Amino acid sequence: MYKLKCITCGSIYDPEPNMYTCPKCGERYGTLEVIFNYDLINVKKSDFDKHGDISQFSKILPIAEYKVKQVVGNTPTYEFKNYYGIKKVFFKYDGTNPTGSYKDRASAIAISKAYEYGYDTIYCASTGNAASSLAGLSAPTDLKTYIFVPKNIPIAKLAQLHVFGANIILIDGNYDQAFDISTKVGKKLNWYSRNSAINPYLLEGKKTGAMELVVQLDFNVPDIVFVSAGDGTVISSIYKGFYDFYNLNLIQKIPKIIGIQAEGADAIAKTFSYGKPYTPVDIIPNTIADSISVGKPRDVIKACKYVEKSGGTFLTVNDEEIKTAIFELAKNTGIFAEPAGAAAYAGFKKAISMNLLKKEDTVAIFITGNGLKDIKAVQDNIKINPIPPVFEKIIEYINEVRK
Ligand SMILES: Cc1ncc(COP(=O)(O)O)c(C=O)c1O
Ligand SMILES: N[C@@H](CCOP(=O)(O)O)C(=O)O
């Protein structure tokens, strides 16, 4: 029903357990796309449920059997009308996933695939979300996990790994270094890879975010979608979700996809801006948005090609804009996002300031992670002194606050 196709040379391969990237083009240029024979997939709109989890998309996923206990997906989409003068703005909030981020969508597929191929151990490199997601969804299974994370991982994400019982390999280095060493070790020890950027099946799990949004919007497709980008897998997956639905005649268009990167981690935005043929521009990352603090994005080629096909672009936002976005998003919508999630919202505001949106547009913003996972960016703003439990003191304080 599906094959694997190299994003650069277009070679087509039959799926095999150890086939991650195109042997001819290598890891960076040779990431693989899962291509389906759409004629063999029999789905109609009424097969899908607005409140279903990602297993409802199994017929369009490259797995033999869905193998996860927790409820992944079925995350809320909130509608705001005339928001910043834009007709309809939808917030797709993935912080309600079992471990609090979009990454659960990919880990669910990694686990299903590891069982299908008969592995007993899965590894990943992660800034923290892929990690906690793999650890959490594997916890009720008999799979062992080895998780490579950089030493600056936010403490809440480390705590998740710890309580879920993962084998944690804390790397004295950054995410890019953790990624390289994890691949080396994983290959040598024949562990299954849950590194989305090289395992094509994981992007397929992530594409369910776009599909779910479409189902929740009664198959109406937004004009423009905002999503943050680090390695570039999530943004590619969102394109793929719309693309599959389009080819299955479930929707009539694919929205423009706008990728948002932090100014201090703008490797994909730079690569995109230099144009074709896309040649990765690597950098040393530096941003408060730890989840998208990536200097050597592994899925950069796919991200650039897909965003171009969608008619979209990449924008960057600085750390101050991301911080402001966390507070504004929380106050306006009730969504507390981690910095990488709020970056997409900061990008939406930037697009407005650049007159990139029309007032009749419908817009969807993917908020990919829960704010409680990384509170560093907001905790410095908390300046509250304790007050004695004395009536007069409390009234005095309330009067002060009311001023
Ligand atoms: C919360 C959050 N948002 C966005 C991203 C960006 O995804 P990608 O690295 O696939 O571009 C990540 C992970 O990387 C993430 O954890
Ligand atoms: N920042 C990401 C990087 C890896 O995630 P993946 O799902 O793209 O493999 C994270 O650690 O969450």
UniProtKB/TrEMBL annotation:
It catalyses: O-phospho-L-homoserine + H2O = L-threonine + phosphate. InterPro entries: Rubredoxin-like_dom, Ser/Thr_Dehydratase, Thr_synthase-like, Thr_Synthase_bac/arc, TrpB-like_PALP, TrpB-like_PALP_sf. Residues 1-51 form the Rubredoxin-like domain. GO terms for molecular function: iron ion binding; L-serine ammonia-lyase activity; threonine deaminase activity; threonine synthase activity. GO terms for biological process: isoleucine biosynthetic process; L-serine catabolic process; L-threonine catabolic process; threonine biosynthetic process. PROSITE patterns: RUBREDOXIN_LIKE. It holds the Pfam family PALP. The modification N6-(pyridoxal phosphate)lysine is found at residue 103. Its EC number is 4.2.3.1. The keyword Lyase applies. The keyword Protein transport does not apply. Keywords: Amino-acid biosynthesis, Lyase, Pyridoxal phosphate, Threonine biosynthesis. Its cofactor is pyridoxal 5'-phosphate. It comes from the Bacteria. PANTHER family: L-THREONINE DEHYDRATASE CATABOLIC TDCB (PTHR48078:SF6), THREONINE DEHYDRATASE, MITOCHONDRIAL-RELATED (PTHR48078). This is Threonine synthase. It comes from Thermosipho africanus (strain TCF52B).
